Amino acid sequence: MNSERIGQENEGYEKSDAEIKVVVLFLAGLAVLLVVVMFLMTGFYDFLEFKFERTGTEVSPLVDALQIPPGPRLQANPAEELVLVQGWEEERLNSYQWVDEDTGTFRIPIDRAIQIVSETGLPAKENDEDSPEN
Question: What pLDDT shows up at residue 55?
């Protein structure tokens, strides 16, 4: 099938320019429409402000922006806090301290606990004859 139109040559481009009068009228109509929409939106916002007057109390949940949010919070100085936590852990691992005086429970240094367990061993569970560990 021949792609040429009757009475025209098919050269792949238009031979005439766009009419400037149509382009200018389109842009002028667009500018007028823009101005009209701006006035309409201003009137609409004025209407909403009149219809829904402020009662003096804010209803936004962001009003209390100075309220401290619930945790977890970010650390202000992570390196310093890590040193403090490691110091606390070292003190607990390497010191004697009462855990509960009423029951006689106390904490001993971990090196001493390892020494006691290596000397005396851990308590063993009695083997039952019915146990399947054979």
Answer: 63
pTM: 0.35
Mean pLDDT by 10 residues, the chain (134 residues): 56 80 96 97 87 65 68 85 93 89 89 91 74 55
Domain membership flag for residue 70: no
Q: With respect to residue 59, please indicate whether it lies within any of the assigned structural domains.
A: no
How many structural domains comprise the chain?
2
- Which residues constitute the domain of residue 101? 78-120
Mapping DSSP onto H, E and C, the string for the chain reads CCCCCCCCCCCCCCCCCCCHHHHHHHHHHHHHHHHHHHHHHHHHHHHHHHHCCCCCCCCCCCCCCCCCCCCCCCCCCHHHHHHHHHHHHHHHHCCCEEEECCCCEEECCHHHHHHHHHHHCCCCCCCCCCCCCC
Residue 133 lies in a domain: no
